[in-house]
Amino acid sequence: MEKQTVIYPAVFAKDGKYILVKIPDVPGAVTQGEDLVDAVKMAEDAIGILLEDKTDYPIATDLKDIHLKKDETVALIPVDLAAYRRKHSKTIRKSVTIPDYLDRIAKEQKVNVSGVLTEALKLRFDI
């Protein structure tokens, strides 16, 4: 799997009419769903929200080291963070300073400077 895909164990437990989900390795990752499908989707979203602006990710606990209480189950939740970022990130306007000659060349060659900057930042942060 590529570097931008993370997989974490999630602990599921029935909580009244909802299914409570905890992702122990991702601080603050607690959510719930109306049914199992919804709970899994909410777990994916919780992981994405909490890790979308990170470049270092928590290490996933091995399933054999997860200790469940009665009526709890565990499942692995994969999240493609690159896809999550593409789907959920908005663009913002930034003012940048570049040498005049580079600006002229970029205009002549119809280069999208914002696109080049975005690609360079992704390479720099390895995302």
UniProtKB/TrEMBL annotation:
Top-rank lineage group of the source organism: Bacteria
Top-level taxonomy: Bacteria, Bacillati, Bacillota, Bacilli, Lactobacillales
Organism this protein belongs to: Furfurilactobacillus milii
Name by which UniProt lists this protein: Antitoxin HicB
UniProt cross-references to InterPro entries, sorted A to Z: HicB-like, TTHA1013/TTHA0281-like
Location of the HicB-like antitoxin of toxin-antitoxin system domain: 8-119
